[in-house]
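step=encode ok
step=design start
structure_in=
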């Protein structure tokens, strides 16, 4: 299943994916586009000068607009500053869901995106019990994937391209062959583990750098793809064979990995790439969220500037 990885609503309307996912970086670009100024203005008016409410209203406004063009779900991200704050994540997720419900959008059409820290995973576990479905993002290690499945989250987003980027830089090479691509290998390993042991959590490969990575993961539960790569795939000739399957996964000689908090932290810490990319991703999303807040706040009418 294809998921659009963009805040560009026109692109979503054109490609008509099943689901769509957003993050502060994507919405920063979309909010600066004159085509979507009405969404920004509407969010600013509803927030009435409250900075926290403004960001929530903006994320929900774009989410509601996206949902007009897709049949499935939209992912909306929790503030990156809450990545190590379980209670703060719970509060923010509930606020976002309430705003969606006020706008007439049910919980079945929203995925709350939470960073795959130990605290984020624990918050998602509680949210799932409340009927708030979660997309665990910034996922780079096998430890994160196992912990998310054990927590019963709806969806995980392993970042293929960012894993590839780190290893390419570490090896000081221009490219890594698909057969050796560590991002592709990571998602393949996670998918097989989930299907081998019957986890309900869906695997959604994300953050692709080239179409070959997408092709190598054909058969994954979902793949979230940027519009430029969708264009390239549409122009490519031939059919894409299925590479991942439940039958193949169940035939793999795998063993369960038991994880408590100490085991999770050690296994994740043992993966230098995952440690670096998780912290880097949190910082980047926070930086773009700040830029987004500053941009939107600068558009507020005089006397109603957002603090």
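sequence_out=
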């Amino acid at each position: 299943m294809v998921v659009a990885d963009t805040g560009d609503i026109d692109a979503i309307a054109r490609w008509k994916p099943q689901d769509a996912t957003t993050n502060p970086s994507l919405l920063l670009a979309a909010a600066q586009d004159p085509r979507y100024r009405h969404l920004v203005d509407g969010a600013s008016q509803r927030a009435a000068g409250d900075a926290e409410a403004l960001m929530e209203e903006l994320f929900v406004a774009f989410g509601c607009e996206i949902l007009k063009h897709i049949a499935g779900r939209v992912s909306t991200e929790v503030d990156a500053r809450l990545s190590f704050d379980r209670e703060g994540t719970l509060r923010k997720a509930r606020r976002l869901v309430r705003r969606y419900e006020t706008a007439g959008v049910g919980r079945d059409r929203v995925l709350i995106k939470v960073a795959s820290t130990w605290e984020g995973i624990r918050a998602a576990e509680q949210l799932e019990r409340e009927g708030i479905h979660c997309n665990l993002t910034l996922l780079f290690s096998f430890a994160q994937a196992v912990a998310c499945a054990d927590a019963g989250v709806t969806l995980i987003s392993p970042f293929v391209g960012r894993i590839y980027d780190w290893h390419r830089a570490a090896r000081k090479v221009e490219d890594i062959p698909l057969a050796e691509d560590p991002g592709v290998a990571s998602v393949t390993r996670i998918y097989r583990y989930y299907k081998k042991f019957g986890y309900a959590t869906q695997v959604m490969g994300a953050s692709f750098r080239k179409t070959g990575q997408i092709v190598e993961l054909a058969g994954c539960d979902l793949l979230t793809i940027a519009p430029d790569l969708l264009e390239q795939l549409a122009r490519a000739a031939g059919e894409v064979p299925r590479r991942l399957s439940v039958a193949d996964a169940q035939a793999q000689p795998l063993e369960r990995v038991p994880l408590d908090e100490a085991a999770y932290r050690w296994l994740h810490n043992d993966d230098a790439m995952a440690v670096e990319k998780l912290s880097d991703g949190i910082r980047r999303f926070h930086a773009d969220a700040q830029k987004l807040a500053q941009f939107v706040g600068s558009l507020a009418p005089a006397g109603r500037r957002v603090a």
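step=design ok
step=annotate ok -> Strands lie at 2-5, 19-21, 74-77, 110-115, 134-139, 155-158, 202-205, 222-225.
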